[in-house]
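User: Fold this; tokens only.

Assistant: Input:
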Amino acid sequence: MEYSKEFKAALSAFSSNDKDKLIFRLLRKDKLLSKKLYFELIDPETTDDKRNAMEEQVEEKILLASKYIGNTQYFLSTIRGISAEITEHVKITTDKFGEVSLTLILINRILEYNDDLSRQRFDNVYKLYIYIINKVFKSLILIKKLDEDYWIEIDEYLRDTQNKIFENHYLQKLCINNGLDFNWLECEKIPENIDQVVKEIKSQGFLR
């Protein structure tokens, strides 16, 4: 929504007291905005601090969730919840590097349980595997938007992802069937038009 000059002028004409009341009313209705402003204005923690804390949370929550791998529907819903927390972290801190690194950490921690996943019926883990592959593709798209200074560190996460995919026969095969070229799991080898590549793959009915 665009705001007219008249509307902006009317807001500017509010008294300081009225503006304060309006701000707090809006903040009560928008918890995310409240957290973002707190972070930007007075939070003693830096973006790096927040990212490090999120890394620990991801690892702890995957460890707890791993007890329920046999209940793949519940396990996937838990994974989605952790992913939502990563998204909130990014919205609060605008941590673009963390958006990639935390997502890859999430994937890699899930795949540490390849032995348990491999014991499940393929039909039961299919949605989880497709979810993981979509997350990999999303990460590749985001990497192309990052400064190249981050690539060395990101490549370490990607190598771990590749190794763990190769340890899971069914996931590896599903990656191939859904158009994931493993050569792309290195920053400099990601196609410049990776976003268009993913759109084309989805248009053919894959990644679902």
